[in-house]
Design a protein that fits this description.
The protein is of the alpha/beta class. About 35% of the residues lie in helices and about 25% in strands. Helix 4 links the parallel strand 4 and strand 5.
């Protein structure tokens, strides 16, 4: 087995990193600030290094596995170095166009570049793969069915506040996302949402208490129709991957929307930074204040107005002595991806969270150990 290199000891890394260090003590831990890494995991490892790309290159060997928990702009340079040195790469981030362009190069060197193994994207993919597989083998499966698929995930305060949100890290990423378009399918038609707050809807979790949230489309949902193995001839009425917020979020953020809508992100960096700092000061989590993660993925098939199949995967988790819910659920799948690569279960090239039903079931079982609630709801 090659060496494991874990780069980045930010807030979303620590539970997973500590878990993998407990099993494999000789992990090489890299961080841009070495002292910070020592403070966080120095009780488990003395194999801690200050990160820079050249130092990583010198330490890489064939068959090594490199985890990047750094900001997204680092993934491509690190992945290229990995391919050059016949080492595998793992990140929890979305597969960018630049990452996908490395697919053939990775194949040629028999290297795995595994991405989208966090919470969202990551655990949501596992739930979607399970539901699609389950539907296809069910007696309800019929090409004449109309399909509704929704996947909503959100990190929210465990204890609701007036702002209806709290920040685990810099608000800059959340603010930039508010300027992004989203694509989804609604009533059989492609829906383009210019700003998230233009398409906020109420959504009830399909559990006994039917807790209500506000939801909106996020990013481009349409490529995931293929990724989730929907058939070309399915009649897709609804397909949306989106963000979940506490009730009242749209009203509480009204002035934020106005402010961000007026900003030119390419030119007004200082205004964005000031806005981010202001929001962080007013609405960041306090020490040991619990966060909450809610994730719901639902697949429904109907014919002639009657529901033939309807199942949902529902996850509810909050911060406890093991760490924040967000950090646990982002970093756990990363550790599981490391183990699958070691076993030789992941193909070469660029890939997202696994779709093998055996691996999906295994990962979801382990996710259930990190969440306070994980259940499959059958309303068929």
């Amino acid at each position: 087995m090659g060496k494991i290199h874990w780069i980045g000891t930010g807030l979303s890394s620590i539970p997973g990193l500590r878990n993998i260090l407990a099993e494999i003590p000789d992990v090489h831990v890299w961080n841009r600030t070495e002292d910070k890494a020592v403070n966080l995991v120095g009780d488990l490892s003395n194999n801690i290094h200050k990160f820079d790309l050249k130092s990583l290159q010198r330490g890489l060997s064939r068959g090594d596995i490199v985890v990047s928990m750094l900001p997204g702009e680092w993934h491509i340079p690190i992945a290229k170095v990995c391919i050059d040195h016949f080492a595998h790469f793992v990140s929890s981030s979305y597969i960018s166009e630049e990452m996908q362009c490395l697919h053939e190069y990775a194949l040629a060197n028999n290297v795995t570049l595994m991405n989208e193994v966090g919470l969202d994207p990551g655990i949501d993919h596992l739930m979607a793969h399970f539901l699609v597989h389950d539907y296809k083998k069910s007696i309800a499966y019929d090409l004449d069915n109309e399909i509704d698929f929704v996947s909503y995930c959100g990190g929210i305060p465990k204890i609701p506040n007036e702002f209806c949100y709290k920040f685990s890290w810099s608000p800059t990423g959340v603010l930039k996302a508010l300027k992004s378009k989203a694509r989804s399918i609604k009533d059989f038609q492609e829906l383009v949402t210019e700003r998230p707050w233009h398409q906020v809807e109420h959504f009830a979790i399909p559990s006994e208490d039917r807790e209500q949230f506000e939801v909106y489309p996020n990013r481009d949902s349409l490529p995931f129709i293929k990724q989730y193995f929907f058939e070309d001839d399915w009649k897709i009425k609804t397909f949306v991957r989106g963000t979940l917020r506490n009730m009242g979020w749209k009203k509480a953020w009204k002035e934020i929307f106005k402010e961000i809508d007026s900003l030119d992100l390419d030119k007004e960096h200082s205004k964005l930074q000031h806005m981010s700092e202001r929001l962080w000061k007013a609405n960041s989590y306090g020490e040991n204040e619990p966060d909450r993660v809610v994730l719901n993925v639902s697949l429904k098939a109907s014919k002639n107005g009657a529901t033939r199949y309807e199942k949902s995967y529902f996850l509810d988790a909050w911060g406890d002595e093991r760490g924040t819910a967000m950090a646990r659920l982002v970093s756990l799948p990363v550790t599981l991806a490391i183990k699958e690569i070691i076993k030789g279960n992941i193909v070469s090239g660029v890939s997202a969270a696994p779709n093998s039903l055996k691996i999906v079931r295994d990962w979801l079982e382990q996710v259930g150990n990190e969440a306070q609630m994980l259940k499959l709801i059958d309303k068929s």
